[in-house]
Amino acid sequence: MDVVGIEKAVASRLGCSGCLAGGGWRTLVLLVVALATSAAALFASFSSSSSGRVSLWFSVPFPALSSYGDGGSDSSTSWPTLPLSHAPPPLASPLLPLGPSSSPLATAPPSPSPTAVTLETPPSSAPSPPPDTGGTATPSPTEPANNTINEAVTINPPSSPTEISNAAEVKLPNSLRETDLQLIQAKREIADAPMVSNDSDLYPPLFLDFSSFKRSYELMEKILKVFIYEDGNRPLCHTPVLGGIYASEGWFMKLMQENQQFVVKDPEKAHLFYLPYSSFQLRTHLYVPDSHSLQPISIFLRDYVNSISAKYPFWNRTRGADHFLAPYTTKLHDELRENTIKAVCNADASEGIFVSGRDVSLPETHIRTPKRPDSGIGGRPASERAILAFFAGQMHGRVRPVLVGHWGGRDEDMRIYEALPAAIARKMSYVEHMRSSKYCVCPMGYEVNSPRIVEAIHYECVPVIIADNFVLPFQEVLDWSAFSVVVAEKDIPRLKEILLGISGERYMAMQMNVKRLQKHFVWHGRPRKYDLFHMILHSIWFNRLNQIPLQ
C-alpha cells in the first residue's frame, strides 16, 4: 500500500478526510508511515538471524565495535572483537587440554570464508577503551585513524601477509586455533610416548629420555610449520654469514630460508615465526668500534619488532611467544626479551636473559671451508691418543688466564698454551693436537660458549667444559655426562687429578659416544636427518611445546 492509500485509509477511519488538505494531517501520517517502515525493517533483521543477532547494515566506526571485545573479568558474557591490525587483540587465555577422545582436527575452528560479520546485541553501551598496544604496535601512518563500516562488513581471506595486516580480524575470545590444538595434541603424545630401547639411526644412551626425543622429533617432522618474515633490509636481514667462528647463526638462516618441508607461505598455518636478522651483521654494520655501546643495535631491534607487530597480527596474538630469533641485545623491547624463543650462543644462566626451558643454546661452530662445512671431521682412535689434555688460545675472559697460569708449560701431560708455540706448531698443528689428545679443554672466553666444544666433537676428543652457568646445547634432550666432562672454575687446580680419576673403561665409552654424537653437530649443504640444523630446529619446537599448558 502506498503512502497516499495509507493516508486515505487513516483519514476515512478518523472521519476527517477533508481536513488533510491543509497539510497538518499529511505530515502526521507521513511520520507514522516512516516509523512503521523502520520498525518492519528492524523486525526483518531480527527474524533473519538464528540467535537474535542484528546485521550491521548501518555505519559504525571500528573503535565502537572493538569496545565490545572485553567485558571485564567479571563479565558473564563475551563478545566478538574486531581489532585493527595496529590495535592488537587481547592475549588468549591459557590453552585448554583436549578431552581423552578429542581430535585436534575435529575440534578446530573452521577456516574463515567471505561472510557478512554479525554482532551479538551488546549490553548497555560503555565508552570504548583505548587500544592496548602492549608497548609494541603503533598505528601505521598510512592508515586512516578512524575507519568506518558501510553497508555490511565482509572479511575476505587474505592472499598475502600484507593483505592480512590491512584487514580487520574476527577473533572469538578464548578460542583455540587449529595450530594451537595441534601443539597441544603433540605435547600429549610426547608425554605418552611408547618405550623405545633401540634405533638404527640413533644411539639411545646419548639421550636423557630417548623415547620422548624420538616421538618429539617424529612429530616435528610431521606437524611443524614455520613462517619467515620477508621484512628487513639487507645485509642486516636475510644475509647469512657462513664462515668463521659465528657461522651457526648464518647456516641456520641459510638452510631455514631454503627449506621446503617446514617453511610455509601462509602464516595462518604456522606454529612458529622466524625473524631473520643476523646478529653478526648487526655487530658488523651498527656497532661503533671502541664505543662499548650496544645502543644502535638495541634501537634497530626495537624498531624492527615494532614494525613487524604493527604490520602483521601474529606477534600481537601471543606477544611474541611463538616467534624465534638470534638476539644480540633485547634491553629496549620488553616483549622481545621476556616472551620470544631466543637462540643464542652465549647461553649464560647468570645474566638473567637466557631462560632454560624456553630459550635455545646455540652451538658455536668454526667453519673454515663454507663450501664444505662437513669436511675434515674425524680423529685418531683412543689407543693412539697419547696426550692427556690440550688447550691453546687467546687469553679472553676470566677463566683462561687462570687455566694457563696454573698449567701452562708445567706438565708434559697437560699441553696447555696461551698460543701454540711456533716450534711446536711446525711439528704438530692445532687440529692434529686435538685429534691426538684424550681430552680437549674448552674454557669460556668473553662468553660462556666456545667453538672448541664442537671442534672437540668433530675430532673425536672428549670435551672438558670449564664455564660456570653455561647452559649446554640441547641439554633438554642430550645427556652430556655420557660424552663430556664438566669442571667447575674453582677446580682448575685439580684438573689433572679429575681427568686421571676417570677410569680407562669410562674414557673409552665417552670417546666412542663422542664419535656417535658427531652427526648431531655437523652442518651439511643439504640438511640430513638428525644433523645440526634439525637439532636446533627441534630445540625451538621442543621449547615452544614447553610453554603450552595442558591444563
TrEMBL record:
<feature type="region of interest" description="Disordered">
    <location>
        <begin position="90"/>
        <end position="171"/>
    </location>
</feature>
<dbReference type="InterPro" id="IPR004263">
    <property type="entry name" value="Exostosin"/>
</dbReference>
<dbReference type="GO" id="GO:0016757">
    <property type="term" value="F:glycosyltransferase activity"/>
</dbReference>
<dbReference type="InterPro" id="IPR040911">
    <property type="entry name" value="Exostosin_GT47"/>
</dbReference>
<feature type="compositionally biased region" description="Low complexity">
    <location>
        <begin position="93"/>
        <end position="106"/>
    </location>
</feature>
<keyword id="KW-1133">Transmembrane helix</keyword>
<feature type="compositionally biased region" description="Polar residues">
    <location>
        <begin position="143"/>
        <end position="165"/>
    </location>
</feature>
<dbReference type="Pfam" id="PF03016">
    <property type="entry name" value="Exostosin_GT47"/>
</dbReference>
<dbReference type="GO" id="GO:0000139">
    <property type="term" value="C:Golgi membrane"/>
</dbReference>
<keyword id="KW-0333">Golgi apparatus</keyword>
<feature type="domain" description="Exostosin GT47">
    <location>
        <begin position="222"/>
        <end position="499"/>
    </location>
</feature>
<protein>
    <recommendedName>
        <fullName>Exostosin GT47 domain-containing protein</fullName>
    </recommendedName>
</protein>
<keyword id="KW-0735">Signal-anchor</keyword>
<keyword id="KW-0812">Transmembrane</keyword>
<comment type="similarity">
    <text>Belongs to the glycosyltransferase 47 family.</text>
</comment>
<feature type="transmembrane region" description="Helical">
    <location>
        <begin position="28"/>
        <end position="46"/>
    </location>
</feature>
<keyword id="KW-0472">Membrane</keyword>
<keyword id="KW-0328">Glycosyltransferase</keyword>
<keyword id="KW-0808">Transferase</keyword>
